[in-house]
Amino acid sequence: MDFTLTELERDLLDLGRTYAEREIAPIAAQAWHEERCPTDVLRGLGELGLLGLLVPEKWGGIDASTVGYVALLEALAAVDPSVAAAWQAHSTIGTMPLLLFGSDDQRERWLRPLAEGRQLAAFGLTEPSAGSDVRSLRTKATRAAGGWVLNGQKAFISNAGTDMSFGVTVLARLADGGFGSFIVERGATGYTEGPKLRGIGWHGLDTRDLFFDDVFVPDDQVVGEPGKGLGQFLSALEVGRISVAALALGTAQGALNLALEYAGQREQFGAKLSSFQAIQFKLADMATQIEAARWLTYYAASLRDAGKPFKKEAAMAKLQASRVATAVTSEAVQIFGGTGYMLESPVARFYCDAKVLEIGEGTNEIQHLVIARELGCA
User: Where is each Acyl-CoA dehydrogenase/oxidase C-terminal domain found (predicted)?
Assistant: First the structure.
């Protein structure tokens, strides 16, 4: 297991961490309370070259390792999980299908501006009646002269409705029962975006429903071979699970950082909270849980970098790290006491942001199934 970052990746991590502390941290709470996606800081990340971390230089990216990507994602999430969530959705399920399965013309036309940070990527999978049960998708693609016609609705789609968004890559059912991936640009006739949805957390992430009413998609906007779209998405999703694990690590670490700071300042009964054994034990357990999940996550990332199977390890990392995030943020609120329960408290934001990590990119129940099957269970 080699988790060592290259010199370039260390520089990128320092660059991203400095930018997060200088530019993202001051506006994170306000954007969260305003329920606004701060695309100005995402553009700033793009200007630094950090929106194409997993994309080869040939297509405008940096071609960092998965381990390097995870390290930067964790650092961003420790400052603002919402911005980090937008960044990871763009970098994985939004961008990977185009990188892995798109034609060179598609990569030049759509992948390059995404990798160079000029636009934001989104992928449309989930529907009102289908999430983990992908084969129940109802959005349909019907063959037409020179292309396809899409009809249906997608739900909870991130990054599709910002002023940076290029549109969305959509997974739709074909007449023969297979699935295809289709690029739908903003402004296409019949394509509309619902209002920004309001979740418990990730208030700074733009998430909304998308509607397709006889949307025509030319043949040159089909990603890969029609009928193989589901396999394409599942391939990208495995990287997404590592990303969610890294998001969870950063969210948990951000909450721990706040708890440590608060415990070192808050006085009760004439002493700092950090001097009480009960608080010390909580903090020790939180740090230990994060570190254990971190090793599992970086291990999954290193397997991908080595070209080895990582499906099981990615699912394990996502499962464990998301559990740790919900547990650690809950304990952080407990350390803050009544102050932590108030939405104005910085730790409350991390607490609210943590829960979705057990749901997104495949629920934890699905991760159990993936792991069990990889273990050989029938």
Answer: 227-375
Q: How high is the pLDDT of residue 177?
A: 86
Q: In the annotation, is 361 catalytic?
A: yes
Pairing of strands 179-185, 167-173: antiparallel
Nearest to 120 by CA among 156, 99, 96, 95: 95
Q: What pLDDT is attached to residue 2?
A: 60
Q: pTM of the predicted model, to two decimals?
A: 0.93
Asked if 60 and 19 touch (Cβ cutoff 8 Å), the reply is no
CB atoms within 10 A of CB 20: 23
Residues in the chain with pLDDT values less than 70: 1-2
Of 291, 296, 274, 293, whose CA–CA distance to 283 is shortest?
Answer: 274
Which one of the listed residues 127, 313, 331, 361 is annotated catalytic?
Answer: 361
Distance CA 351, CA 132 (A): 24
Asked whether the beta carbons of 297 and 246 are under 8 A apart, the reply is yes
pLDDT at 69: 94
Q: What is the pLDDT of residue 234?
A: 78
> Which helix (H) or strand (E) is 154 found in, with range?
strand 147-158
User: In whole angstroms, how far apart are CA 227 and each of 106, 178, 240, 264?
Assistant: 18, 5, 22, 57
Cα 252 to chain centroid, rounded: 15
Torsion of CA 367, 372, 375, 378, to 10 degrees: -140
What pairs with residue 192 in β-bridges?
211
Q: Which DSSP category does 342 fall into? A: S
Please spell the DSSP secondary structure of 292-320, one letter per residue. Answer: HHHHHHHHHHHHHHTT---HHHHHHHHHH
Count of C-beta atoms within a 10 Å radius of residue 184: 25
| CA distance to 297, 362, 374, per residue, from 367 (Å) | 14, 7, 11
- The torsion angles phi and psi of 92, rounded to 5 degrees, stand at -110, -90
How far is residue 27's CA from residue 39's CA, in Å, rounded to a whole number?
12
